[in-house]
């Protein structure tokens, strides 16, 4: 239990980063493809690094899935940053695959953590939102970059809120405060 509760702040940082990224995407939906690629790449890289770090701090049950999710985030971020001239459709597929794979990883980690923490459904919810987001991108690839910016922004804000809520639930559990 201590491994999970000591790293509550990693969930908080991931959530805050997601909310900030989402708000920026919503404020400036007309950004050029280059700016969107850089924003996404930076977010995926930071999120992946924190997921990887959390994976090394957790017990054996959830470690592999968090490490896997972190590696996928880091790779997606590096791909986006290495090739900023990527077309919007290629960016759409990179984002969609990353969202689906990391979402499934978080759902599995949440299920595995059911016996170790309360309210693991928040991690599962974040993962489910990620999978739904990825599937929607694959279902309508021709939606255009403006739509992609809005979808990414909305997803990131909702996902960030779920991670922030989970972080505070885990922190409250750490401090011995009763968790409703």
Structure write-up:
The mean pLDDT is 82. The chain has seven helices and no strands. Helices cover 82% and strands 0% of the residues. With 180 residues, it is mainly α. The protein has one domain (2-173). It is globular. Helix 2 packs antiparallel against helix 3 (33-57) and helix 4 runs antiparallel to helix 5 (88-112). InterPro entries: Acid_resist_chaperone_HdeD, DUF308_memb. The chain crosses the membrane at residues 7-27, 33-53, 65-83, 89-109, 121-142, 148-168. This is HdeD family acid-resistance protein.
SSE map:
Layout: H1 2-6, H2 8-27, H3 33-57, H4 60-82, H5 88-112, H6 121-139, H7 145-174
Helix pairs in contact: 2-3, 2-7, 3-4, 4-5, 5-6, 6-7
Short synopsis of the structure:
The protein is 82% helix and 0% strand. With 180 residues, the chain is mainly alpha-helical. It is globular, with a radius of gyration of 16 Å.
Mean pLDDT: 82
Order of helices and strands: HHHHHHH
Number of strands: 0
Low-confidence stretches: none
Q: Can you tell me the overall shape?
A: globular
In terms of DSSP E residues, the strand content is: under 5%
Distance between the termini: 18 Å
H/I helix tally: 7
Number of domains: 1
> Quick one: biggest sheet?
none
Key descriptive features of the protein:
180 residues; mainly alpha
